[in-house]
Amino acid sequence: MYNENQLYTAGRFAQKAGVSLRTVRYYDEKGLLKPTSYNEAGYRLYDGEKFERLQRILTLKYLGFSLDEIKDLVDQEMKVDRAIHIQKEAVKQKISQMESILKALNSAEDMFNGELVETDEIQWEKFTDVIKAINLEEQILNQFINSSRLECRIDFHERFGHDKRGFHKWIFDRIDFGDKNIKILDIGCGDGSIWLKNKDRIPKGCTIVLSDMSQGMIEKAKENLKGVDGEFQFRIANVNNLPFKDEEFDIVMVNYVLQFVEDRTKAFKEIKRALKKEGTFYTSTFSRKHMKELRETLREVNENVKLTLGDTTTRFVIENAEEQIKEVFCKVEMDKYEGSLRVDDTQSILNYMFSTSANINEVLNKKELKTLRNKFQSVIEEEGYFHITKETGLFKCRNQQEHEK
């Protein structure tokens, strides 16, 4: 058990951690494992908390993450027990992948049965099975990163949101669940947060189908909703090609997804097809004002960096969503959610930005990153917090007009 307040020289730290001094120096140079402080002689000193950070770095490296990806992940603020849990899930996925590779290799080996097989008798697809199993690694890593980034964004809004009730409960208040025994489809369910945050309010007798394009998100939703009272089903699905029957659902929900869909008209038609004639479609999106302070500050430092939320998704926002929805749905109503974030921690802002940006790592150099950090920090020191505007809307869409019923 290491005393987190005790300081260790780099050599002593490396010895206790069971790694080489060169490894500690290397991760310091890469900005992954900075010293806690320096002594009078200029030697680097590390405290007990750095052992946990080093462990995270080494685990993620073993799992196949790049140094940039590792830095992104370890810089996110999270409780130690949560960080350990996330790593455990990643290791489980790695084990599952290795088992798939072993199974494919065994299958290929069994084909020979210890005997020489003629070339024209070899089932070459056995080898493609091995290749596919190996190539799953990139998919697993991407799913892990996406899940971790989503958690970072949700945590950011919950910690610093001025409205402590939160968006998930606000949106749940506005869904008309109506009769019992209804069937609900949640498209782009992510980690299932909306159901987890409202677990004590889920209507009895309803069936909830959670769908997402990401297998990783589906697995995360399953994990989060384990033990939650409700009949949940999980499906991998693309909104442009839903694997469901016509008129199967009473309610279809799509939150913060359609701005990323290229062919939204096709998506709306698929949703309408899967929705009962008297059913209701709910979808939420952002306004152009949403998180604008982050974009403005970022543009002051470098105009080439794009935040995924707000820069590349203005094709489906509050200001133009209703017009698009009405191409397929008859009656559309919008309820606006206005709030704000008051963030008093610079690192949390940077973590959030890294979780949303598609190119911030590639575009910002160290000098620009320091400038960005200083801009946020100066506002926090002067005002007590950095204010961020939140503005989203929930659209309630009827499948048909009253006179058509």
UniProtKB/TrEMBL annotation:
PROSITE patterns: HTH_MERR_1, HTH_MERR_2
One Pfam assignment: MerR_1
A GO term, aspect molecular function: methyltransferase activity
The keyword Flavoprotein belongs to this UniProt entry's keyword annotation: no
Entry keyword set: DNA-binding, Methyltransferase, Transferase
GO BP, sorted A to Z: methylation
PANTHER family reported for this sequence: CHROMOSOME-ANCHORING PROTEIN RACA, REDOX-CYCLING DRUG-SENSING TRANSCRIPTIONAL ACTIVATOR SOXR
Protein name according to UniProt: Methyltransferase domain-containing protein
Lineage, top ranks: Bacteria, Bacillati, Bacillota, Clostridia, Eubacteriales
